[in-house]
């Protein structure tokens, strides 16, 4: 199993909307590195859903339910989507400031590549973030 983090502005698509929709395809990625990360996702991988711009916090855990396929919203290019479904809301959201203040997360892509919208996480980073969010999850 691999671990990921996806970023989304809550004004465009919030965690609450994602939960209400019971899942979505993750579209609109127009960065090659982020696209490659989508292509690397496997069914069953766990994904942290992060609100960017407003809030700047991890909201919950999603699960990959379908591996990459062509992005139906792309007018040109080799862009892809994956299907995600909500798995569990964090009991306590984890803010960017808290992440920056945790020395064990100093190399996390969220800090090192702040503009990247889809990024891999190490298993240890994922588990630390779950602990910070007071969110036990048996799916790990």
From TrEMBL:
Domain EVE: from-to ranges: 2-132
InterPro entries tied to this protein: 5hmC_binding, EVE_domain, PUA-like_sf, THYN1-like_EVE
Name under which the protein is recorded: EVE domain-containing protein
């Amino acid at each position: 199993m691999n671990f990921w983090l996806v970023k989304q502005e809550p004004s465009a698509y919030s965690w609450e909307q994602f939960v209400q929709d019971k899942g979505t395809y993750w579209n609109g990625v127009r960065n090659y590195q982020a696209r490659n990360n989508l292509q690397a996702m496997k069914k069953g991988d766990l994904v942290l859903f992060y609100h960017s711009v407003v809030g700047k916090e991890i909201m919950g855990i999603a699960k990959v339910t379908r591996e990459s396929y062509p992005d139906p919203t792309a007018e040109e290019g080799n862009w892809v989507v994956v299907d995600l479904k909500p798995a569990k809301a964090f009991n306590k959201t984890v803010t960017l400031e808290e992440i920056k203040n945790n020395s064990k997360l100093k190399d996390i892509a969220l800090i090192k590549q702040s503009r990247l919208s889809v990024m891999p996480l190490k298993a240890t980073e994922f588990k630390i973030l779950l602990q910070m969010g007071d969110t036990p999850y048996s799916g790990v």
